[in-house]
Amino acid sequence: MRAWRATKPGPIDGRPLTMEHVEVPQPGPGELLVRVLACGVCRTDLHVTEGDLPVHRPAVVPGHEVVGVVTALGPDTGTEFATGDRVGIAWLRHTCGECRFCLRGAENLCPRSQYTGWDADGGYAEFAVVPAAYALPLPANYDDTELAPLLCAGIIGYRALRRAALPPGGRLGIYGFGGSAHLAAQVALAEGAEVHVMTRDVEAQQLALELGASSAQGAAEPPPVQLDSAILFAPVGDLVLPAMAALDRGGVLSIAGIHLSDIPPLNYQRHLFQEREIRSVTANTRHDSREFLTFATTHRLHVTVHPYPLAEADCALRDLAHGQFAGAAVLVP
Questions:
Q1: What CA–CA distance (Å, rounded) separates 156 from 281?
Q2: Whole-angstrom distance, CA of residue 50 vs CA of residue 9
Q3: Which one of 132, 147, 237, 317 counts the least CB within 10 Å of its CB?
Q4: Whole-angstrom distance, CA of residue 284 vs CA of residue 132
Q5: Using CA atoms, how far apart are residues 178 and 325, in angstroms rounded to an integer?
Q6: Average pLDDT of the residues in 14-39
């Protein structure tokens, strides 16, 4: 099969990915073999490829927004999935189930957690394997390319929204408006929020308004109202300051990314006093995934996708890095 590997992590313009022909992986105990139908291109893939995240598996195959069909089952896979089923492979692929975090329902904080496209090969390939316990059933009312971004962009956006503690009918600010943000905005709007978007990209500003945002302006510009909650999707630490300054008393800023550039010094009175909070988001739980996909089944989300052939995965990542599209890129065979 064809597979892209991050053989020389470094700047994406330096071509750190290489396409190789490799053996189709075989499912081990408790695993499913999945033929990849679509794989979303996530900013985390960029961080893995460029080396912002330390190498966990040398020459790993990136990709953790995988939609595929089960073609084989290893022993002891249970009864939830059968050959021919359409399934999703997301970022979280293993937790220990025994530590104090797993036992209290916070498996995303498990010290022994493992991740698709970082600890194990992912979906920038024609086949992938996934533990059956971490595979996801998928809504029937989306096509393959629409589903792919839901499996990380959607799930993480959903968790970031919950971490932002937005009150009912509250005012939400969104900083950055890519694949994850445009889905989280729709969830918030469906739940009755007033949404304001801050992004430097004019095309993304227009998309935000088309989806129902009350305003859209530059990335560091103040929104027209004070915010109850905010989510920072752009991996830009400098934006923490304007986001915190835009919060009303008791407001919460949720930082959605796995990587963020350095945050400048905060002024206590301006940015933190009056019980303003900053919260990070660390991966997701399987409960988050299934809860969000249930929401996506009952609330038809508009997923803005830009398909790329699998052979152009490196081009898709470069375009993501340089902000060449609004929405989400998706690789297709």
A1: 8
A2: 5
A3: 237
A4: 17
A5: 8
A6: 97
The Cα-based distances of 54 to 118, 193, 258 in angstroms read: 9, 37, 12
Rounded Cα gap, residues 149 and 64, in angstroms:
9
Q: Which residues of 193-203 are buried (b: 16+ CB within 10 A; e: fewer)?
A: bbbbbbbbbee
Selection from 90, 95, 12, 1 nearest residue 50 by Cα = 12
- The angle that helices 155-163 and 179-190 make with each other, rounded to 10 degrees, is 60
pTM: 0.91
Is 177 in contact with 331 (CB distance < 8 Å)? no
Q: Which of 178, 134, 176, 159 is nearest to 41 (CA)?
A: 178
Per DSSP, the three-state class of 35 is strand
Tens of pLDDT, residues 308-320: 999 999 999 999 9
**Distance between CA 181 and CA 243 in Å, rounded?**
15
What is residue 326's predicted lDDT score, i.e. its pLDDT? 78
| Tokens encoding 177 | 């408006």
The SS3 call for residue 268 is: helix
Distance CA 85, CA 130 (A): 14
The amino acid that residue 298 corresponds to is: T
Residue 143, CB-side half-sphere exposure with 13 Å CA sphere: 8
* Calpha distance 62→66 (Å, rounded): 10
Question: How is residue 196 written in tokens?
Answer: 């304001």
In eight-state DSSP terms, residue 132 is: G
SS3 252: strand
Give 273-305 pLDDT, tens digit per residue.
Answer: 999 999 999 999 999 999 999 999 999 999 989
